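cron nightly-structures :: item 1 of 1
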Amino acid sequence: MDSTVIVGAAAPMAGPDGTNTCGVYRLEPNSTEWRRLSNGLPDDMQVNVIVGRPGNASELYAGSQLGLFKTTDGGDSWTDLSVPVDDRAIYSLMLHPDDPNIIYVGMDHTAIFKTTDGGAAWARLATVQPAAAIPGCFPVRVLRMAMDPSNTNELYAALEVGGFIRSLDAGATWEDMSGGFVALSKEPHLANHILSDNDAEGMLDLHALTMSADQPGTIYAVNRMGLFISDDKGESWREFGIEHYSELTYGRDIIPSPHDSKTFYAALSDSARGQAGSLYRSADLGKTWNRVDHDISIDSTLMSVTVNAGDPNRVYCAARLGQVFGTEDGGATWNAAPLPPGIEDLRAIVSI
């Protein structure tokens, strides 16, 4: 692979003889040796999310159960930004596209913190836990946040087995917007439960969401049941028909290309801890989809996908059990770069 690839692993004590293998790992260009990054990072840091600063390949943020850490040198050294995590793990990060001092952090218990001064001080926002949330499974987690590129005051958050909330005033107030997902769960093919006796569970099990600069107010979301779209800022939702293109419909990640806001990538699998994954691409705002991974075998849940900020043809994805795959030519050919045995529960990947 010609790019530097960085991944986050969340499974602790998974290595040989119970050694600690969670953390941040980096693969240098044209190398096959993954290096665990440690300068400024705790040894038992379970990494759930890594986000890069657009326009600055060396600036990255990594979130975990021990806090939020920042690097400005591509991972060589890290600084703790002192987010008050308490008993909450960080699962999602959102950087303001116009103001580098504004960062949002999503956690357990439907908590979202915000800084307006680059991390010197943090304030917990007045989020709401949806009435339909199913907290008995585990603490409701803010797994992904999105900001409308056309109006950066409009924020949206996907909750794991919790539904969907939004803020139209930069996080000052929040609304429970889960009604559309609950309504869809009344459809027989979308009724699903694994962890409870509530048939809305599958639809409320949101994993990721995103927006395109070409479609103000339009939100794309993936959950246990597939891919869904809202054209009205989350007021209502409809199926987006991924089942017409893919046998695998369990969605874990969806992102737009940073080079073309009409192009999306979706990470699909058979289940949360499955045995098959696939990567799909749409070049027409999700109207049609094509599978782009081939000549490789994704043998566990595909958790995360990233497009290199400098080259649209460099696309990489990470699967739960330690598999990393990449293409340097827009999907014509693919290469595997598996992590060493014991480095598992991959949840984040970036390419710089």
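cron nightly-structures :: done
The mean pLDDT is 95.
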